Amino acid sequence: MHLLTLCELEREDVLSIIEDGLYFKKHRGREEPILAGKTIAMIFESPSTRTRISFDIAIRELGGHPLVLNAGETHLGKKESVKDTARVLSRYVHGVVARVKDHRVLEELAEYGSIPVINALSNLSHPCQILADLLTIYEYKGRFKGLKLSFLGDGNNICNSLMIGGALVGMDVYVATPRGYEPNGMFVKKSFEIIERYGEGSLTLTNDPIEAVEDADIVYTDVWISMSDKNKSLEEVMKVFPPYQVNEKLLSYAKDDVIVMHCLPANRGMEITDEVLDGEHSVVYDEAENRLHVQKAIFKYIYSRD
Ligand code: CP
Ligand code: NVA
């Protein structure tokens, strides 16, 4: 199986990945070598700190071998079609973790290869990040039902995946973006389908940051210009995004025990202030740590099904 968008998962799958992630966190150093004899190719078309390091360490700690392939080190998509690369990689390695600029590359790797493909971030989604975030929310709040999760800023890859993840666990998700920067329509549609399927949770799209943050249990933000945003200028962004900045004033509308999340890297002083990022409500370094534990749970989930 593949993990490209989170839409592949049912609620019980997400809950079991969270449970396993918590187990791996508690028992670090005592993992079963579930990747013994397996080599996992890690393709990175764009830079990464957390995803690359946490996957590399997770693979080693599960007894496998990571093979890092940085941009320009293979023929992928340039001198060779994605289809051929997928077929050839499938003869050598046992899985691919890939960070790509264009989500269609992941879909092609999955379609033409015969090994699991895991999305390490694309222009459209970042499923592994959101699984770690859900684990972090569970650690702090002990439940999902009835929680109001607000995402502020750009309707980007993180926002798309957060809507799906939130719907899968039944949270009430609010997304506040400037007009014209709403999340991807396909992910919005999928989120509503999931909400309907389980009869729990909700999704509200708004342009009003205060409506989103009012009484929120979780406030989440991300950069206003993503790696894949080739044509977005700072000038354009500064015209419309500042009201969505997560600062102490905006946060005062949330619940007293609100947690503040950011996938990192952050642009301090832009989408979030230093005071909030470094403040008592921030759980951003827990999110970063939990990437490691959740990557292990993702491998366990995928290879127990393959
Ligand atoms: N959050 C995240 O994916 O960070 P990196 O870009 O450092 O991997
Ligand atoms: N939206 C950001 C997330 C980085 C982890 C980006 O794509 O650059």
Automatic annotation (TrEMBL):
Enzyme Commission code(s) on record: 2.1.3.3
| InterPro entries from the UniProt entry | Asp/Orn_carbamoyltranf_P-bd, Asp/Orn_carbamoylTrfase, Asp/Orn_carbamoylTrfase_sf, Asp_carbamoyltransf_Asp/Orn-bd, Orn/put_carbamltrans, OTCase_ArgI
What Pfam families would the database entry show? OTCace (PF00185), OTCace_N (PF02729)
A GO cellular component annotated for this chain's UniProt record is:
cytoplasm
Binding-site residues, L-ornithine:
157, 222, 226-227
Q: Which residues are recorded as binding carbamoyl phosphate?
A: 48-51, 99, 126-129, 263-264, 291
Q: Enumerate the spans annotated as Aspartate/ornithine carbamoyltransferase Asp/Orn-binding domain.
A: 145-301
Q: What is this protein called?
A: Ornithine carbamoyltransferase
Originating species: Methanothermococcus okinawensis
